[in-house]
Amino acid sequence: MYRKCCFVLLSCLVPLSVSAANAPDAGLGKGPIHISADQLQGQNKPVQEAIYSGDVVMQQGDLIIHAAQLTIHAAAGKVEKAVATGSPVSFTMSSAERHGYGQQLTYEPGSGRIILSGDAHLWQGKNEVSGNQVTYLLQSQQTAVTASPGQRVRSVFYPAKGGSAKP
């Protein structure tokens, strides 16, 4: 049974559309943010913050995040950061053929940065990189991977047809 008790945010908190419906494809990290969850608690003072919990789905354009809990941090009605946690939290971007998971995901819409941490994995097609933390930049499609102390980052790359690996 889902808890239906929600605290209503003031309309000036963040320009979010809380909806289970899919957003039209507005590209990677662009367009309105749609969130659906079992529960929402929010506040405007002293900080603008919204905490979604229970089977959370966040979508912005082609980016879809699944988590147990999602905290939205905002300023002046604009989303600055979304922090998702889960066991694990995952995301997909079908147009970039990317998907990944980790124990925590931080998404910064302004910079288009996604940071997966805690047993983080990122795939492009069949190719995979993993480590303690994977940082991915949506617009430039750059990736940085770091390992835990005493560990190493890992990668698996499959040759493309014709013998060359896909970047």
Automatic annotation (TrEMBL):
InterPro entries xrefs: LPS_export_LptA, LptA, OstA-like_N
Gene3D superfamilies: Lipopolysaccharide (LPS) transport protein A like domain
GO cellular component entries: cell outer membrane; outer membrane-bounded periplasmic space
Occurrences of domain Organic solvent tolerance-like N-terminal (ranges): 34-141
Signal peptide: 1-20
UniProtKB keywords: Periplasm, Signal, Transport
Single GO term (MF): lipopolysaccharide binding
Top-level taxonomic group: Bacteria
UniProt-listed GO biological process terms: lipopolysaccharide transport
Alphabetized PANTHER family for the sequence: LIPOPOLYSACCHARIDE EXPORT SYSTEM PROTEIN LPTA
NCBIfam families referenced in this protein's UniProt entry, alphabetically: outer_YhbN_LptA
Protein name as it appears in the record: Lipopolysaccharide transport periplasmic protein LptA
Gene expressing this chain: lptA
